[in-house]
Amino acid sequence: MYSSNSDTASTATGTTVGTVGDTEERTRDRVLNAVLEDGPVSAAELGSKLGFTPAAVRRHLDALSKAGLVEVKLVANQKSGAGRPSRRYVLSHRGQTKLGNDYLDIATQALKVLGDAAGEDAIRKFARDRFATMEIRYAKAMDGIEGLEERATKLSELLSSDGFVGYTRNVEAKVSKALMRSVQLCQGHCPIQDLAREFPVFCDMETEMFARLVGVDVRRLSTLAGGGHVCTTHIPVGRGKAPLRAEKRTRIQFTKMERPR
């Protein structure tokens, strides 16, 4: 009898502990997804969005950080650039992988076979075709939007709808000339990050697509595939929309550290 009661108590306790653990894991996943959607994001902003106390948010962020799923980035004041940089949280590569798709491993292997059999031109054509259908959809949605900044904003919204967590940031130039105004098109998540790391041509084709859609020179500043915490594309908005041939107006610059291997 005693033994039976002891087993029952132990089982009940185990169930309670398991339930608490499951709840903690689900809550932590909510925090992780919020970092994905809003990162770089502060702990206070996460607390406000999720309805958590500051202490609760930091506890979950500390756990995610120890697990290697999120990283802390020091971000300067976007408006003035003055003051101490704020602590912002972003997904790490491991966090990106956790939220990624298993099919990418298969796709990567398939492209390697394609490259071995038909050469790099075949991979480039595959990447170009992949973005062609996306570009058609985006072009229709952006039809009638004339302002460069408005086009960049709409492009970020379309990217978000496809899982890239897009947003724009205004960049204040250190000069008074209106022609120097620009925005940064950012992508907080890349569903094909590991694929792009292996085959950087996907980043190249995406950047060329951006240039055609907004109609001006664009410059890729960083990529998730290259180790950046976001994909960032520089778009000058202080000039009129002047469509040019994509290969002439698109400048894709990678540092040695960014260039995927």
Automatic annotation (TrEMBL):
It holds the Pfam family HTH_20. Residues 1-26 are annotated as: Disordered. It comes from the Bacteria. InterPro entries: ArsR-like_HTH, WH-like_DNA-bd_sf, WH_DNA-bd_sf. CDD domains: HTH_ARSR (cd00090). Residues 1-21 have a biased composition (Low complexity). This is ArsR family transcriptional regulator. It comes from Glutamicibacter ardleyensis.
